[in-house]
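Input/output pair, single chain:
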Amino acid sequence: MLKLSTLISLLIFTNIALACDCRLGEVNDKLANAKYVFIGKVSSITIKGTKSPFNEDHILVDFSVIQSWKGNNKKVTLDTVANRASCNGYWFNESQTYLVYAYDVKGKLDTYYCGGVIPKNEKSHFDSELSSLNELVENTHNKSIKRD
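Output:
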């Protein structure tokens, strides 16, 4: 009986410990907290040969940056996972375009599937986020001009 209760406790508390909080906030929160915010096209995906605790492949995702709101790189590489169960990473596809909020996570540039990546082919969500992002940046720019 003790072994069974120990096993049940381990299963419950391990899942709780591995669970993540994926609330990145609204566009203004994501912009403020991200290291880079950009629209980019995936130019390559490299499997690193290691796995996450959720058995996801660690990957390097190279982007050609099309438009940037934070950071001014022409190319950005995420060190992330091919997401299947964790909060980090995404199920990126080569030659696809994404709006990405990239964060410094334990010294790596990474992202979160739940609001940190919006594929262009999800047109209404992509367009809405893009509109909010442009409006926020324009309003911030106008406020700083008025103060000067």
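The CA atoms of residues 33 and 107 lie 15 Å apart. Confidence is low (pLDDT under 50) at residues 4-18.
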